[in-house]
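Course assignment 3, question 2. Fill in each field.
Student: A.L.
Task: Predict the tertiary structure for the chain below.
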Amino acid sequence: MMLNRPFFKKVMIGYLMSIGIYSIAYIPVIIFTFIGLSQTPYLVETNPTLNAFIQTRGLSVGLLFGYLSSLLIVVPVLGAAHLIYIRPVVFSIHRDLKFARRIVTSLTGLLLLFWGWTFFIDAYNDLQILSEVAVWNEAALWTIFLLCLGLFLAGLALWGAVLMTATYVLSRDDAKIRVESSTDRVLGDDKARAEQADSNIPLDKRGETGPLV
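Answer field:
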């Protein structure tokens, strides 16, 4: 099986986009946690892993390390999902790879939605707490939250469109290959018939036969 470079390029773009979509969902958590912990000493981070990083490495570096530690799980999982998308043997049904790729895309999209829902619920709870203690401008907090939410949903839709166009590119190339192979087969059959016709030598020629006695 030859590597289809346009198809592989689009899948790689989709893979990088999926990591970016996950990162966008993580942004409001980082911002609201930083604002809350830096503005008042009464707030405590409830995430034990993130809290451990903050306690050992400081607020800014701890938040960064918390994000990077989550990528250690997210990057391989999304990479495996996109590899299965390239050759979805596990989910193939009656060798219908197009339908199998739709299944892989749907499952990966649901996983991204689950991560996004988790982060935005956490960020919304942080936003409510920050609004109650009034440590920052509430309108600015809502702007950050809604902007990240909009970018997350738009990125998710764009990611799905990229994978759909990748399948279209692959289907178009497969159709082109089938047309070329059928054309070559027809030309080969015509050539074989022509050679067979040339090899048939008539036994009797009208110009060389005389009258029957």
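Instructor remarks: The first helix runs from residue 5 to 39. Helices lie at 5-39, 48-57, 59-86, 97-133, 138-199.
Grade: pending
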